[in-house]
Structures are given as C-alpha cells and as structure tokens.
Write a structure and sequence with these properties.
- The complex is a heterodimer of chains A (about 120) and B (about 550).
- Chain A has two domains: about 70 residues, ACT domain (Alpha-Beta Plaits), CATH 3.30.70.260; about 40 residues.
- Chain A has three helices and seven strands.
- Chain B is of the alpha/beta class and about 550 residues long.
- Chain B folds into three domains: about 170 residues, Thiamin diphosphate (ThDP)-binding fold, Pyr/PP domains (Rossmann fold), CATH 3.40.50.970; about 160 residues, TPP-binding domain (Rossmann fold); about 170 residues, Rossmann fold.
- In chain B, β3, α4 and β4 form a beta-alpha-beta unit.
- The chains are: A alpha+beta (about 120), B alpha/beta (about 550).
Chain lengths: ~120, ~550
C-alpha cells in the first residue's frame, strides 16, 4: 500500500478536482483522510493506493493542479492505521502500524469496522 | 463599482480586444456594461462556435481568446469548444454566467453545474461566490492560461456577483501564479546521446507551435544533421520547403516522415505527448530508439513513452540550450543525405486531372495558389488528413486543426476567429460536408460581423472518414455514413448572404480559389469530389508502419 500526502487550498471543489485525476487514470483510492492543518486556509489529504506504479503515474498530474501545493509519496515507516470497530462490547478505537491494526481487526472479528491509513 | 463594470474593466486591462459569445438572462448586467466598452463583441449563433472562434483567435494571436455564454444550456453548449482548446493546449478564457448564489444548487431555471462540467476539460476553473474575489480571479485566469503549458481557463460568475459592489482595493489586488519548474538535469545526457547518433530524428509537436521555436529547431536540425518530422499539431511550425523537414508523421503521415521516425537511433521529441495517432501500437513504438523527450509539462514525460531522458522546460529555451551545447562539436556524417534523397522521392503532390474532382487536386491547387501568409483551418476527417498531407506550410502560413479532440465543426468557426486575429491574411477552411453541417449557421456570424473567410468544401456526400473505416475494416458494410438529405450548399450560403460557387470540373478549381481569395464576402466553394477517394496512405489503428495501406502512394523507401 502506498500513501500519498497532498497539501491543498481548503475550498469547495478541491476534492472533486483531486479525485477527478484518479477517475481519469482509473485508480481506486483505498482510503482517504482530509483535515485542517497547521496553515490557515490549507488542508492536508492523505490517500492510499494499492499500486505503486499507478501512484507514481498520477502524482505529476496532481502536482499540475492549481489547487494542489504539494504532492508526495510517504515512506512506509511513517504510515499509520486507524480503525473504529463495532463489536459485542460496543465501539472500540484502534491505532498503530498497519500490521498491528489489521492484526487486531482480524483477531476480534468485529460486526462492523472501518479502517483508514494516515501519515505525517 | 458594480461587478459587471469591474469585469469589463478587468478584461480591458488584460488587453482583450474581442470576445465571442451569446448573452442570456444571467449575463444581462454584464452585457449592459459592455455597451459602453470599446471591446468588440462578436455575436455567434451557437456557443460551441464561440469557443472555437476564441480558440482560433488564440492560436493566431498567441494570446488568450475570450468566449462567453450564459448559464445552463449556454454553458453546456460551450463544453465542446473548451474541451477542444484543452486537448490542443490553447489559451481560451471561457466565461459563463450562473444563477444567483442564493438559489445555486436548487435547480433554478437555466442552472447547470458548469463548474463541475468544465473541471476535467480546463487547465483550471473558478466559480466566484464572493464578489471580493472577482478581480483577482479574472487576473489569475489570464495568468494561468498563459503560464507554462497553455490551456483554457473557465470562470463561472453568478448573476449577483455582477450586481454586487467591488471596492477599489479589491480591484488593485495583485496576483501571482507559480511558475512551472524547469528540470534540465538530463541536458548532458541528452547532448551525449544526440552527438553520438548515427540516425538522429527530431520530432516536433504542438508545444513548438505555441513556443514559436521553429527557426531554432531548424537550426538545431542542421547542426545535428537530423531530419525533422512534425505531428499534426506542429504542422506549420517548421518550414515544409526545407529539405530536412519531412512533414507530418503518424497514421496518415508522409511515408518518409514515418520512415525517419521508425528507423532513427536517437529521437529528440519536443513538445509532443506521443499521441496514439502518431505512435501506432505503443508497445512497438521506438523499441530500438533512444528518446530524449522535451516538454514544458513534467507530467507528459514518461506518460506514453517510458524510461527516456526527460528535459522539462519551454521548447524555445531547451532547444537553445541544446544548440549551445552542440554547435561546437562537428560530426562527420549522419543519414542526412539519404533522408534528403528519400524526401525528394516521396512525392505525393498529386496534380490529378480527372472528373469527378479528386480532393487531393483541390488541396494541390490551394497549396500552389494561396499566399505565403495564408491561414488554413480544417474540419475533422478525410478533409483534415488530405489537408495535412498535401498542403505545404512554409513562410508565414499557418495550419490550424483540432488535433487532440478531433472536433468536427471546428474549422469554420476557428477560421472566423483566425481572421479576426489577422484580418490582412487570406483564411481558408478546408471542410467536409459532414463537419460543415454541424456549424453552417455561423455564416450568419460571418456576414453580420463582416469576417470574409473562404470555406473550401470537399463535398463527397458521406461522413467520409467513418465510411473509409467501414470500407477497409468492416467489409464495406455502410451504416449511417451516407447523407441522403444534404442541402444545396451553394443555396445555403447564399441564403445567409455569402457568396458561393459550385465546382464540378478539375479545370475550374484554380479559378474558383482565385475568386475566393479576392472576395470581400465570406465565400463557399462547393467542390463536388469523388466519393470513392480514400484518405491514404493510412496505417491501421494499433498496427505498425509495415502494415500501412498505401493506395496511390509510390513510396519505395522501405519500412525497416
């Protein structure tokens, strides 16, 4: 799994423009996190994509977008996973490395869960 | 100051002389202000053509062309014009009106989400929802359209922005856009490769037309002793009467150009994206070739042809850097002499004296008769391929065509835009009867705004290129390609007040073209041509050059 971090202007339409490039290149985005960041009027997007070749193919196109300030792939050791699970004992939050979180999900077999990749 | 007045002033500040458009409900405040402006407004008859006219204007003037359409259907009609400009990297500013911000998103009358519609077919686009942002947005739009790789920029302006107050402070705001990064780290590698090449070839694309690097590239080709082949988009950027310029390559290209492209050991590709119409089967393209790829857009390097020396920068700058690096070092010999000889032998300048008229003969006569500063536009299909193959572009001649999107109906409005940009030149649209029927209403625009262009209609009564494919690849099973009910084109043009001549004999062609060049009115020359004539040679899609269908072509130079 590859994670890509984008620094973008925080305004309506940015997500559509970014995702448009993935649509055009027929890339399925596995997970996506968007949030405010340390700079005002800017936001960070962290996307994960399964194929490294495809990730490299789209990154120059993302950099060409006028609302994207930076776009880079992130080293694997900086990846972090986050999940919310719903099991017998109610809601449970899990954070850790990708392997750790996936291990816990596999072990606890929750009724419902969502897992996402984040990085900084 | 009201938003509408601000918008007009901002366009004037950008030295806009002319805009092409159609008003509508939400544009009324803007058009009311336009009444007091010196900017010329050309009222078109369909918004798509406003886009093509702005595009044609931009390609000749080398600065942004402006088109404007109302909300909803105006914007959706404009889409084809903008998409055409996007594929050919033309700096068009497309302005659309929009319903008021208060009702935006509620399916108001004539509302369409034009911001989303235009997003994937523009270099960038804006929807203004705060009047404060109007001045900086318009300034930014012009900057973005002409910085780095050119491209269309769309601005969606709701009607209440036109009626809101704009402060002088906002009007005075300066804007900047990031400059594209240059990357010439591979320059030494490139120079080394080119220097050692035994069979170098230079391939130039549309980027060279925009960057006007033709003279420098011709010089580089003389230093390298390398032939130049052009893509369809680059036709006219280098003089086709130069012995080392081999003309257009690709699917319907000249055989000698394809020979040089496929047999070179080092290919210097400048401002081209290696379109499938040029490369044929991508997997087989350039397997034996080392490629140096120059492009202003870093995302083009390695997009279609991978693993090569990439130089990111403007064609003019990079070519000058290459000249500086190479001019001292003289090489004994390359395949230059052999290519020049082959180029001489690759004659397809057919002077076909037969009736019904052969379309190649019409182009042959145009090539001979049009002045050295003539601008030729084409529609899309067989007419375009005959024009690219048989019309010679040199001197100040220009060749304008929809290369990327392949928009039928592009040529006529683009010719009108080109004529507005360069009124002193003869402007001729090489048209087909299918394409012309998509935009024939623009004769009204040409008459009303006094834009005397010449439409040279190669009328064969078919959607010729599709028919040709049905003939060659679908066993002559013709479906929906023969026109049963075409109008009398002479009467059609005359109904609009244009001049028109029908030409049915080859002996009358040159006289008709001469008359067309002298006409003060828009003029239609209806050449009734042989419907059985195909646009050949042709390399079938997905095949390599060895499988080329040659037709009349006498080429004996070989393929490998």
């Amino acid at each position: 799994m590859e994670a890509m971090m984008l620094l973008v202007y925080d305004q309506p339409g940015v997500m559509q423009r970014v995702m448009g490039e993935f649509t055009r290149k027929r890339i399925n985005v596995e997970t996506i996190v968007v949030g405010k960041c340390e700079m005002p009027d800017r936001a960070r997007i962290v996307l994960s994509i399964s194929d490294r070749e495809k990730a490299l193919g789209v990154i120059e196109h993302l950099r060409a977008l006028h609302e994207v300030i930076e776009a880079d792939l992130i080293d694997h050791e900086r990846h972090e996973a986050y999940a919310i699970m719903l099991g017998k004992d109610g809601v449970c939050r899990v954070t850790g490395t990708v392997e750790e979180v996936e291990g816990i999900i596999k072990k606890s077999q929750p009724a419902k869960y969502i897992e996402t990749l984040n990085a900084i | 100051m009201k938003g509408a007045k601000a918008a007009v002033e901002l366009l004037e500040q950008q030295n806009v002389e002319v805009m092409f458009g159609i008003p509508g409900g939400v544009l009324l405040p803007f058009y009311d202000e336009l009444l007091q402006s010196d900017m010329r407004h050309i009222l078109v008859r369909h918004e798509q053509c406003a886009g093509h006219m702005a595009d044609g204007y931009a390609r000749v003037a080398k600065r942004p062309g402006v088109c404007i359409a109302t909300s909803g259907p105006g914007a959706t009609n404009l889409v084809t014009g903008v998409a055409t400009a996007f594929m050919d990297s033309s700096p068009v500013i497309a302005i659309t009106g929009q319903v008021a911000t208060g009702v935006l998103g509620n399916d108001a009358f004539q509302e369409a989400d034009s911001f989303s519609l235009m997003m994937p077919i523009t270099k960038h686009n804006f929807r203004i929802t705060d009047p404060k942002a109007l001045p900086e947005t318009i300034k930014k739009a012009f900057l973005i359209a002409t910085t780095g790789r050119f491209g269309p920029v769309h601005i969606d302006i709701p009607v209440d922005i036109f009626t809101a107050d704009i402060s002088d402070e906002d009007m005075a705001k300066e804007v900047r856009v990031p400059k594209p990064k240059r990357n010439l780290a591979g320059l030494l590698d490139a120079i080394k490769l080119l220097e050692q090449a035994e069979r170098p070839t230079i391939m130039v694309g549309g980027g060279v037309t925009w960057s006007r690097a033709g003279p420098e590239i011709t010089r580089l080709s003389e230093i390298l002793m390398a032939p130049i082949v052009t893509t369809l988009m680059a036709k006219g950027s280098v003089p086709e009467n130069h012995p080392l310029v081999l003309g257009v390559c690709g699917m319907h290209g000249r055989q000698v150009a394809n020979y040089a492209l496929n047999n070179c050991d080092v290919l210097l590709a400048i401002g081209t994206r290696f379109s499938d119409r040029v490369t044929g089967k991508l997997s087989e393209f350039g397997r034996k070739t080392k490629v140096v790829h120059v492009d202003i857009d870093s995302s083009e390097i390695g997009k279609n042809v991978k693993g090569r020396v990439g130089l990111v920068g403007d064609a003019w700058t990079v070519v000058n850097a290459l000249i500086a690096g190479l001019q001292q070092r003289k090489k004994a010999a390359t395949w230059k002499e052999r290519i020049i000889q082959l180029n001489k032998e690759c004659t397809c300048d057919y002077d076909l004296k037969s009736n019904p008229i052969k379309p190649q003969k019409v182009i042959h006569e145009m090539s001979k008769l049009l002045p050295e500063d003539a601008i030729v536009t084409t529609e899309v299909g067989q007419n375009q391929m005959w024009a690219s193959h048989f019309f010679k572009c040199y001197g100040k001649r220009m060749f304008i065509t929809s290369g990327g999107l392949g928009t039928m109906g592009f040529g006529f409005p683009a010719a009108l835009g080109a004529k507005v940009a360069r009124p002193e030149s003869v402007v001729a649209d090489i048209a087909g009867d299918g394409s012309l029927q998509m935009v024939s209403q623009e004769f009204a625009t040409a008459i009303e705004s006094d834009i005397p262009v010449m439409v040279c209609l190669l009328n064969n009564g078919w959607l010729g290129m599709v028919k040709q494919w049905q003939k060659l690849f679908y066993g002559e099973r013709y479906m929906a390609t023969k026109f049963g009910g075409s109008p009398d084109f002479v009467k059609l043009a005359e109904a609009y007040g244009a001049e028109a001549i029908r030409v049915e004999r080859h002996s009358e062609i040159s006289e008709a073209i001469r008359r067309g060049m002298k006409s003060d009115l828009p003029i239609l020359l209806d050449f009734v041509v042989d419907p059985e004539e195909d646009a050949l040679p042709m390399t079938p899609p997905g095949k390599n050059v060895s499988e080329c269908i040659k037709g009349r072509c006498q080429w004996k130079g070989g393929v490998a």
